[in-house]
Design goal:
Blueprint (H helix, E strand, L loop, with lengths): L1 H10 L11 E6 L5 H11 L1 E6 L4 E7 L7 E9 L2 E7 L9 H13 L1
Antiparallel strand pairs: 1-5, 2-3, 3-4, 4-5
Length: about 110
């Protein structure tokens, strides 16, 4: 998918992101304006980059509200579909933070 390739190129700008460990997901969103999406991201993480023309954002977000393990996610809103690419560095004990970040973002937009 070209959306996944685009999001991967956005995340590749960050020096610690391992491209092979980036996970992708899509979520159908019927009535979600880009401005509302940006507000949701700002309330739940640290927005790093926004492009209103392309309708993508990059956010640093924790896997849960109590988690100290933070990851980075690139989000693209296109044709009522939210494309998500996320990456979180895992330590010795695998906590599946990337999958939890995708799940958290999915729950935010529903």
């Amino acid at each position: 998918m070209q959306e996944d390739t685009f999001l991967l190129s956005v995340l590749a700008k960050f020096p610690n992101v391992e491209k092979t460990k980036v996970r992708f997901s899509t979520v159908a969103v019927n009535d979600l304006p880009f401005l509302k999406l940006c507000r949701l991201l700002a309330e739940n993480g640290r927005v790093i980059e926004i492009d209103a023309e392309t309708q993508y954002a990059v956010v640093a977000i924790a896997a849960s509200t109590t988690s100290l393990n933070e990851g980075v996610a690139a989000i693209l809103l296109k044709n009522k579909i939210l494309y998500i690419a996320a990456y979180a560095k895992e330590g010795l004990i695998k906590q599946h933070s990337t999958e939890k970040i995708i799940q958290r973002l999915t729950e935010l937009v529903r």
